[in-house]
Amino acid sequence: MAEQEAHWVFGYGSLMWNPGFPHRRSGLARLAGFHRKLCVYSFHYRGKPEKPGLVFGLDRGGSCIGMGFEVAAEDWPETRDYLRKREQVTMVYREIFKDVTLLDGGKVRALTYVVDRKHAQCARGLGDHEIAALVRQGEGVAGLNTDYVHNTRAHLKALGIIDPALERIVALLAG
């Protein structure tokens, strides 16, 4: 019997260090055409409707280094259901398949979640100072928005990823 084809998932935020699904292997990967950005208003986990925070999304333009996860075919249905429950709570993300370059060589087609620019939670056109102000004020059921941003930065650095936009926000938060 021939081996069934594996599937791939691209993670750019907390999925990178907390995927929550079984995978055969993982490694750094680059997605072209999208970049990691604090561009999703958080009204629950890292903010409240009256004082929103911001969480990461993939927005158009540039590129993003994240993690590629290879998922065995037999684990795919359960993994996809899990990801939809995790990422599609308010439908602020669009589920798409994009070509991803694995940094150890090769290209794969991976499932990822990009921000829906038409969704009410999409925070478009914000400058660094506006982003930092929203992050400073955000606090929700999962804690402080500043903790989320600092934790993301620490995990990215541990993987050898420096995100210049995130570094600018962290510098503003320190000031």
Structural write-up:
- This protein has 175 residues and is an alpha+beta fold.
- The protein has one domain: Gamma-glutamyl cyclotransferase-like (Hypothetical upf0131 protein ytfp, Roll), CATH 3.10.490.
- It has four helices and seven strands.
- It has a five-stranded mixed barrel. It has a two-stranded antiparallel ribbon with strand order 6-7.
- Helix 2 packs across helix 4 and helix 3 packs across helix 4.
- It is globular and about 45 Å long.
- The model has no long low-confidence stretch (mean pLDDT 95).
Topology summary:
Elements: E1 7-11, E2 25-42, E3 53-71, H1 76-87, E4 93-102, E5 107-115, H2 128-137, E6 139-140, E7 143-144, H3 145-158, H4 164-174
